[in-house]
Amino acid sequence: MKNQKGFTLIELMIVVAIIAILAAIALPMYQDYVAKSQVTAGLAEITPGKTQYEVALNEGKTSVANIAELGLKDSDRCTITPITALTETGSVECTLKGNTKIIGKKIRVERAADGTWACKTDITAADKKYIPSGCVTG
């Protein structure tokens, strides 16, 4: 009887099947992780606009020419809605780009009349796993 060296075809097929099953489980989880990180990145891009918005209001400005005056700019992840009028109850809004699960969704920071800011999004409750903590649907 000869000593067999290496793997048989069936052993290799089993390994390939196991890898395929693991990939089928991991890929959707990875895509969800990417979508959530893109939403969080969109929020991070508009958050600095709150400070500049407050500064502009305190300086007595009632409008800005473009979003650059608030220290904001569009990116690969976010198209920022142009702000023209500065009011006591304004907002800074981002239309998300990127992952197909969140493309076109909006995330914004809204200023209340008392000067507090809140994060809101139009991402539905069904997709709440993409909403950053501290943000609400609305």
The amount of beta strand, in percent, is 15-25%
Number of domain modules? 1
How many E strands?
A: 5
Integer-rounded radius of gyration? 23 Å
The CATH architecture is: 2-Layer Sandwich
CATH-level-4 superfamily name: Glycoprotein, Type 4 Pilin
The CATH topology turns out to be Glycoprotein, Type 4 Pilin
Helix-strand sequence: HHEEEEE
> Low-confidence runs (pLDDT<50, min 5 residues)?
none
Main sheet specs = 5 strands, mixed
Shape: elongated
Keywords: Fimbrium, Membrane, Methylation, Transmembrane, Transmembrane helix
Pfam family, one: N_methyl
Protein name: Prepilin-type cleavage/methylation domain-containing protein
Family: Belongs to the N-Me-Phe pilin family.
Could you walk me through the main structural features you see in this protein, from its secondary elements to its overall organization?
The chain is α+β, with helices and mostly antiparallel strands. It has helices at 9-46, 48-58; strands at residues 78-80, 91-96, 106-111, 117-121, 135-137. A 5-stranded mixed β-sheet has the order 1-2-3-4-5. A hairpin with a 5-residue loop joins strand 3 and strand 4 (117-121). The relative contact order is 0.15. It comes from Stenotrophomonas maltophilia. InterPro entries: N_methyl_site, Pilin, Pilin-like. Keywords: Fimbrium, Membrane, Methylation, Transmembrane, Transmembrane helix. It holds the Pfam family N_methyl.
